[in-house]
Amino acid sequence: MAKKKGCLGCSLPVAIIILVLVVGVVVVGMLAGPIGQSFGITGLPSFLGVSQPHPQLPAETVFHIFSFPITNTIVATWITMAVLIILFAAAFSRSRLIPTRIQSVVESLLGFVYNLVTSIAGEKDGRRFFPLVATVFLFVGFNAWLSLVPGYGSILIHGHEGEAELIRGANTDLNTTLALALVVFGVTEFMGFKRMRLGYLKKFFIFGGMISAVKKLFKGKIGQAAMEFVSGFISFFTGIIELLGEFIRIVSLSFRLFGNMTAGEILLLSIAYLLPFLVPIVFYGLEVLVGFIQALVFAGLTIVYISLAVASHSSEEHGH
Amino acid sequence: MGDGNPLSALGIDLNFLIMQIVNFCVLLLVLYLVGYKRFLKTMDRRAQLIKESLEAGERAKLEAASAEQEVALKIEEASVSGQKIVEQASKAAEEVRRRVESDARKEAEAIIEKARAETKREKEEAMSELRKEVADLAVAVAGKAISQSLDASTQKALIDNVMKEAVSLGKG
After folding, report:
1. Candidates A58, A92, A114; nearest CB to B35
2. Is B48 part of a structural domain of the chain?
3. Residues 120-149 of B with CB under 8 A from A
4. Are A133 and A299 in contact (CB under 8 A)?
């Protein structure tokens, strides 16, 4: 076996030339931007620089449909929906036992989510909630990944509120993440009530200890009653915290995703502004990973919350 | 966009929120109809097929083992019955040989007996014919003796003649 000379499969001179070019491009980009300006370097062509980003929290209205305003994140949502539906249609329109290429790609993605769901919620419940969790995973993931495609954030139009991006990553709008969190919250509570009826509320309003304390008080066992009252009050208090926790989930789910995605977008814009050439590629790779992790976290928490609501039912039954 | 709303600073708007909820629900429904249903069905079919194939393989293995056993049994049976057939055949052959031999012996004896009887009969016939010839000759000699007187030498020659004729007749 002949030993390869040089670096990265190139001969040493070629590798050195590539390295010099890379460093040159990065340095020129850097000098043409704000860093160069701060060092007083001017006169470089303006196309080498990237305009200063103006991140904006609320989504911007880009056009109206029947006088209903459509924001750039809704446009991105529709694009994500279209991509997913087309992908699924292509994969499963002629679903075969021996899968086609695209079918096997989509199946492996869905198989990953299916295994995650069934490992947390069990085979029966996992199968029931799989469509919801998979949609959450795909929606969050594809929103994040598609927002890295050129065109997102770079096509500007002049709308009612001045210059605005035509398409902006849907996850960077709180309305999207809040909508997802509300759906997850709704399904979780619905499943809790469906399985336990009104008994589901017993998880939050725990009066058992205090009632028992009052009974003991009437029987004259004041010492025991006082002890039970304290423990009953603690139980009652934890129930209230549990109830608050249910609602706080909406905030935590929506803000976690929104924060991570918005931070990612601002990071990319800032890096592109400071070092416009080659360096952002590394951060794009990072954002692909962040998108996957956020999708996994959102989907994982969805199935965990639902299975907790369902599991409390079975533990209640065992308790009786 | 509800500027009076304190949440509007974060961009939260009830209309957009409802729209995104509807968007997500539509996506869920469409993906369920287009993909998840078929995905789960395909997975079930695949699992069923694998299960059936494994079962069929196991069954085939058992069947092959049982068939092998059966074949071995049949081979043994065939070997035993073959031996029996060979024994029977050799017995029958022995029987046939013995019978043929005995028949042949009997036939040969019969033929010899018959030949012997024939020879005896022919001998007796020849003897009787000879006797008859000799008698005829004696009558002729007697007739001649009667018709002429014979001297002693003639008589002797005559008798010799008769005897010679008799002998030649006996040989013929």
Report:
1. A92
2. yes
3. none
4. yes
